[in-house]
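## retry 2 of 3
previous attempt timed out at serialization; input unchanged, resubmitting
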Amino acid sequence: MDKRNKAVTDSAAPPLRTWVEHSIAHIQFDRPEVLNAINVPMAKAFHAACKRISDDTSVRAVVISGKGRAFLAGGDVVAMVDTPVTTSQELIRYMHGGIEILSSLGCPVIASLQGSVAGGGLGVALACDIAIAEENTRFSVAYLKIGACADCSTSWGLPRVVGLRNALRIALLGDTVSAEEALNLGLISRVVKAGELATETQKIAEKLAREAPLAVASLKRLFRQSFDHNLHDQLTAESEAFLTCAATEDFKEGISAFLEKRAPNYQGR
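## retry succeeded, writing output
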């Protein structure tokens, strides 16, 4: 991971760029000529980038984006023609590994979306904590168009976010969902005007990067595990997490800053 304050092409994987700037890690898919369709090199680079970010304790927020006219237009169908099973296995192995890492990160992950968000691209977006979309963005599951079902966590994330009926409608009928409908369904967090996506994404990433990292990690974990807990177990988990936060230096700093009417300076301890 390059930590100089500039973007660099990952020398091991040209289809994807990673950089860290002011504690914000960026992963940018970089195959704009094919709408960032996922091939095996991109999948491997994505997994490697997620792993590097998970090992970097200086990172306090992550932004996932796509270069050009699309976020991710799903898998590269052309790359699957000659060896459909082998290529699919490789794509799934690395994309799924990266998505699992993304979902388990303690820091917040932001999807910055434009153009096409389809197939596996939708799965990546669903794995993020916050999704910001430009007003021209279109979402689709699209798997049935090539005689496939689902991957990249779409079958897990979509029903949880939009409900089972809406998820099945979108997947079975092949409906293309506009940014406005996606916002109404809860599929995304915010819609921004064309040309404002990068600026608005950066503002949100900077805000999140200023929060207490241990508290953010606990909050994410509580919300994500709540689907698997009954009320009693979730209340127990909340109690334990809150008391753990209360014992941190950041909690003391947060209280002091609140009482002194100033911005807190969290150190992650």
